[in-house]
Amino acid sequence: MKKRENDSLQNEGTTDSKYIQQHLASERTFLAWIRTAIAIIGVGFLVTNLHFTMQASLSPIGDALANIIGLSSVGLGILTIVMALISYMRKIDAINNQSFRTSRATIVALAVFVIVISLIFGAYFLIV
């Protein structure tokens, strides 16, 4: 009798294992956000590096824009990592409780930040 009870407990699995496909998809999404954040930070370092290479030929406005792009890209990359981590942790519980909802606010906020940095980046190349 005791053997059957142990077997049935082992077959039930954990709550996470019931929704393994959803958890794996959520993990892939989290890793995609991390890759995006690394790319955003890379753009900031690239602009900063170009800025120091071309510093003698830049106008004061170009100099200011390069600094803004570099700092804001690094800041946005870090913000993206933090928001991705928070979203991922919330999704774990939401999937297990079958109360998952899409995180529209996070995606819209990050999209707006990327658009703003892209506009500043475009202005930088028009001025330089």
UniProtKB/TrEMBL annotation:
GO terms for cellular component: plasma membrane. Keywords: Cell membrane, Membrane, Transmembrane, Transmembrane helix. Residues 22-92 form the DUF202 domain. It holds the Pfam family DUF202. It is found in: Cell membrane. The chain crosses the membrane at residues 30-52, 64-86, 107-127. InterPro entries: DUF202, IM_YidH-like. It is a multi-pass membrane protein. This is DUF202 domain-containing protein. It comes from Bacillus salacetis. The lineage of its organism: Bacteria, Bacillati, Bacillota, Bacilli, Bacillales.
